[in-house]
Design goal:
Elements lengths: L39 H6 L3 E5 L6 H15 L3 E6 L10 H19 L19 H12 L4 E6 L6 H14 L10 E6 L7 E4 L4 E4 H4 L5 E3 L6 H15 L5 H11 L3 H12 L13 H14 L2 H9 L3 H12 L15 H9 L3 E4 L2 E4 L2 H11 L1 H6 L16 H15 L13 H14 L3 E7 L6 E7 L6 E9 L4 H15 L4 E7 L12 E7 L2 E7 L1
Parallel strand pairs: 1-4, 1-7, 2-3, 3-4, 12-13, 13-15
Antiparallel strand pairs: 5-6, 8-9, 10-11, 11-12, 14-15
Length: 537
């Protein structure tokens, strides 16, 4: 039976798209979680200790909780998932951290395991010292009638000696498996262990995670949803409600999200369940998806706040800045070499960056939109410009007026560029983007193309709709010896790809010049049938 939005669904059928916490299949539309990590079972059978790292809200907790329960249900192993994030609060207190680890095991066992598998009181008797957690696990595994498989989540949330102690206890107990220590064990977090750079108060020095946990057999990560998985997820909603996702909409959502699980679910939730959702009697179109993606971006959910917080980390900022300005040349005189490989891998592990055709790029089109918006959010709010002042009587955006006023704004506030703590090389781009975004908000959109090997940022400003739609091609470049020479054919090629015969090439000088009258100087060039306005700022 299918239901309209006006009908009350039976309680047992009230599933929805989840965007907060682990998926519960009986409550949430769920992609088969165990099919997403097919190598898990072999690692367990081979008694391996391994790392599972993936960005937040990609399904780590859902997969590992369900897998632990399935292992117990099958009968060959006792599977248990624990989350030890609470130990972050005690920082370097190893004794208090161990007490939290032990309590989490006892609590989760009581909730999820049959009573005969509960740790006895003797497991916790007279525990003290740095090895208390190891001793507890040793005693419990001796009690258990079957091998224990333990999944420890939020391991990388720990700090300093607490984290070092956990790694060393697990390494020390490893030789006693499977009868005196877990048969198999996984540490779960955002990062691979090679990225754990741990400061030990006791030794007064940094320790690299890999050296404290050299028993790791493998590092796994969770891939984003495939197009087929997005299609299957949305089909579950169709089967319950009758509401169809048109194939063009499904493909568009997968393209825009790159299959990132939280985004896939959040867009569908916006489309089907939130205020102003599409009625279940109507099919969901690509246009619907476009509108809801913009709503989601403007709403700035917690997921985007977490992303914005990462952008301020120095090692993340180093990579994102290069991508924003399109720079990755090893011999570039201003940047001092190629992108640091460890920093790049860190941003990839966080789900922010991926390797693209033109170099490293932001992981998906929605993040590509979010990153410059987040970096310019405060600037946009501080701008006092009235967007309607730049719209002509016939509803068109006066781009020349937009640019002219930007020059005036830049003359007054350009020195702010040198005051940024991060993203100083990208500051010109970000200042212009904040100006442009503020002006077009409500009447248009700015599409951005940028990657570390492009050497520029390409912008397409859309304003208006239907027969009144304007599409304005703009390219941003940093000053260099060949900026104009390279930029003219680049922007001409971009314009022709967009089927346009006019484009703007804006070249930002690296320093704010004292001769402010030179800001905005320009010349007109024709290249390959494209009229190009070359402007120096």
């Amino acid at each position: 039976m299918r239901y309209s939005q006006q009908q009350q669904l039976p309680t047992t059928m009230r599933k929805f798209f989840n965007t907060a916490g682990p998926n519960v299949p009986k409550d949430h539309y769920t992609v088969n979680p165990l099919a997403r990590l097919t190598s898990l079972r072999q690692l367990i059978e081979d008694k391996r200790y391994f790392i599972l790292h993936a960005p937040r809200q990609t399904g780590k907790t859902t997969i590992m909780r369900l897998f632990a329960q399935e292992l117990t249900r099958e009968g060959n192993y006792i599977g248990l998932y624990i989350n030890i994030e609470a130990a972050q609060a005690v920082r370097n207190s190893v004794e208090r951290s161990n007490a939290i680890f032990i309590e989490r095991v006892r609590e989760e066992a009581r909730m999820l395991l049959p009573k005969e598998y509960f740790p006895s009181k003797e497991c916790s008797a007279d525990l003290s010292g740095d090895g208390a957690f190891q001793t507890f696990l040793n005693r419990w595994c001796h009690e258990l009638p079957k091998p224990l498989v333990l999944f420890i989540d939020e391991a990388d949330a720990l700090i300093g000696d607490s984290l070092l102690s956990l790694l060393r206890q697990v390494r020390s107990g490893y030789a006693n498996r499977p009868h005196g220590f877990p048969h198999s064990l996984a540490l779960i977090g955002l990062r691979d262990i090679r990225d754990y750079r741990i400061f030990s108060d006791s030794s007064g020095d940094y320790v690299i995670g890999g050296s404290a946990f050299n028993i790791k057999d493998k590092s796994l990560t969770i891939e984003n949803f495939t197009l087929d998985e997005v299609r299957a997820l949305y089909q579950q909603h169709t089967e319950v409600t009758g509401q169809v996702f048109e194939e063009e909409a499904v493909q568009f959502i997968h393209e825009q999200t790159g299959g990132q699980p939280w985004l896939v679910n959040a867009i569908a939730r916006q489309l089907c369940f939130e205020d102003k959702a599409i009625p279940w009697t109507q099919a969901i179109t690509k246009n619907d998806a476009e509108e809801k993606i913009e709503e989601l971006i403007l709403r700035r959910d917690t997921h985007f706040d977490q992303l914005a917080d990462k952008l301020t980390e120095p090692r993340v900022a180093r990579v994102i800045e290069r991508i924003l300005v399109g720079q990755n040349a090893p011999n570039d005189e201003y940047y001092g070499g190629a992108l640091p490989s460890d920093d790049v891998q860190y941003t990839i592990d966080l789900g922010l960056v991926k390797a693209g055709v033109n170099g490293y790029e932001i992981a998906n089109p929605i993040y590509r939109e979010i990153v410059p918006r987040e970096l310019t959010h405060q600037q946009q709010n501080e701008l006092a410009e009235r967007p309607l002042w730049y719209v002509t009587d016939d509803g068109r955006l006066d781009i020349e007026k937009v640019l002219t006023q930007f020059y005036e704004f830049y003359k007054r506030h350009g020195e702010m560029i040198t005051k940024r703590r991060y993203y100083t090389e990208a500051a010109h781009h970000l200042m212009f983007l904040s100006w442009l975004q503020r002006i077009v908000n409500g009447g248009g959109r700015v599409f951005r193309e940028y990657a570390s090997g492009l050497g520029r940022m390409d912008l397409l400003v859309e304003f208006g709709k239907g027969e009144h739609l304007q599409e304005i091609v703009i390219e941003l470049k940093k000053e260099s010896r060949f900026a104009e020479q390279d930029g003219i054919p680049q922007v001409a090629g971009y314009a022709k790809r967009m089927s346009k015969t006019e484009a703007y090439l804006i070249i930002f000088r690296r320093q704010f010049i004292e001769d402010i009258e030179r800001i905005g100087e320009r010349k007109e060039v024709e290249h390959d049938g494209v009229q190009i306005h070359v402007i120096w700022v």
